[in-house]
Amino acid sequence: MSTPSILQVSPKNFQMNQEVTTSILDPVVSSNSFMRFSLERRGILHSNSKLLIAFKKDSGDNDDGVILPHSVGVESIVQRCVLRCGNRILVDTSDWNHLRGYKNMFETNEDMVQKQRVMAGKIHAFQQLKVPAIDNAQLTGEEEPTSIVFENDKNLVVASGPTLGVDGIGLIPHENQLIKNGSTFAINISDLFEVLRLHQLPLFMINNNIEIELYFQPSNTLRFSNISSTAINVYSIDHNNCKFVADYIQYPENVMEKFKSENKKLTMPFLDYQLVTGQNNFSTNASYIRNLGGAGKQVRKIIVSNVITKIDGTDVNFFNNINNQYLSNEIGNLAYQIKLNDELLFPVPIKNIAEQYTKILAAEGAAPNIIGGDFKSPAFGSDYNEGVKYGDKNMATLSNNKAYFASEIPNDVRINNRGIELHIENTSVVPDDYDVTQRVWLEIGKLLVLENGVFNVLFS
């Protein structure tokens, strides 16, 4: 049974009076590591309802340059998100902030600059321009060759001083992007839970309260980035200013009652993400096989991320992927193979960078909005200009490694009881301390079934 148009996130094909009311909800439980919101059982929850997150300064009085990680923004805060109805979990996504590092590759430049920069604190948009040449912090009147730099809707300036960075030319963050200025950032509920990208929840038909549970990233090093050389202040979540802005769609009462009586059972298909994590040192264990599970399920896609385990505070963004970091040519240093239902998915392991890129394109149906430096491949274009600063940091060092690996599973096959095997081989010389945390998300088809006011979650 298809989802009724009244619950779909799309223009409506009928004419009817519609009223939208907004409630600003406080968390019912709140700490520096966990937060829970309980929604009212009325109307239909709009999928663009938003979670508001604010921060406060606990200690320090420094003019620092602390911002949110540039590729994920405020999404760095949420490590795990759970959608619950009564005592039943409907959606549960672990390491959601790292998954968003992959998903945000498909944001357009326009959306990143005009919307996400303000709403979520992201700045991972880029532009090509002529960078003026400087000498001793003075413009010479000449220009360097065309370069790739960040795009944050501000002009390049000659940067000098503790806030703007060392002498040179660069971009200055917007005031709302600096945590010290007390900005409030927002996350769409449809980004937190994939089911709400296509469906809106009929809260008036549900017997139990819908609750949103957020488990926060415990490490401040992962929550924030510092783009200045100044000693930084200590920031934490400002619980008094964290809210959930719930938009409820309501139709005339007789229409709502008729819809409820005619739809005793609603089925909402969606895609969920099952996480498998592991540790590996590629210098001592260059080739290994990991079983990802998935037995008996329809797996649509596999997303692989390898992130350096060691956190030493020198990096400014850990929501990335280190594949191809030590390549010496256009052949990547990690080769991938997938085995499912006793057959290899690829004729030979996928090692060529261009082929890895096309696998992402085929899996998502869209090209990632990245530059060659993000994918660590000269074949895909230039890196950011090493002479241009963002605050006190070189843009080239701020650039993420976006060389994720993703592959669709054709024909929506159901996985047998042996599960899915991921085969990985490192083919390059890497440092001895090349310890990585590997995250693999299985995109699994599920059904959210609402029958007589009670939710059930089924596998497709």
Describe this protein with a few key phrases.
460 residues; 42% strand; five-stranded antiparallel beta sheet; globular; mainly beta; Adenovirus Type 2 Hexon, domain 4
Give a topology summary.
Blueprint: E1 19-25, E2 29-30, E3 34-38, E4 44-45, E5 50-59, E6 66-67, E7 78-85, E8 88-94, H1 96-103, H2 109-119, E9 126-135, E10 138-150, E11 157-161, E12 165-171, E13 184-188, H3 189-192, H4 195-198, E14 210-216, H5 220-223, E15 225-226, E16 234-237, E17 243-250, H6 253-262, E18 265-281, E19 287-293, E20 299-308, E21 331-340, E22 343-344, E23 350-352, H7 353-364, E24 388-390, E25 393-394, H8 395-398, E26 405-408, E27 420-426, E28 435-451, E29 454-459
Parallel strand pairs: 12-24
Antiparallel strand pairs: 1-17, 2-3, 3-14, 4-17, 5-13, 5-16, 5-17, 6-15, 7-8, 7-14, 9-10, 11-12, 18-28, 19-27, 20-26, 20-28, 21-22, 21-23, 21-27, 24-25, 28-29
Descriptive notes:
By secondary structure, this protein is mainly β. Helix content is 12%, strand content 42%. It is built from eight helices and 29 strands. Strands 1, 4, 5, 13, 16 and 17 form a six-stranded antiparallel β-sheet that branches. β11 (157-161) and β12 form a beta hairpin. The longest helix is centred in the C-terminal third of the chain and has 12 residues, at 353-364.
Q: How far is the first residue's CA from the last residue's CA?
A: 13 Å
Estimate percent helicity. Answer: 10-25%
Total count of strands = 29
The number of distinct helices, counting runs of at least 4 residues, comes to 8
Tell me the domain tally. Answer: 1
CATH class: Mainly Beta
Classify the beta-strand content into a percent band.
Answer: 35-45%
The CATH superfamily is known as Adenovirus Type 2 Hexon, domain 4
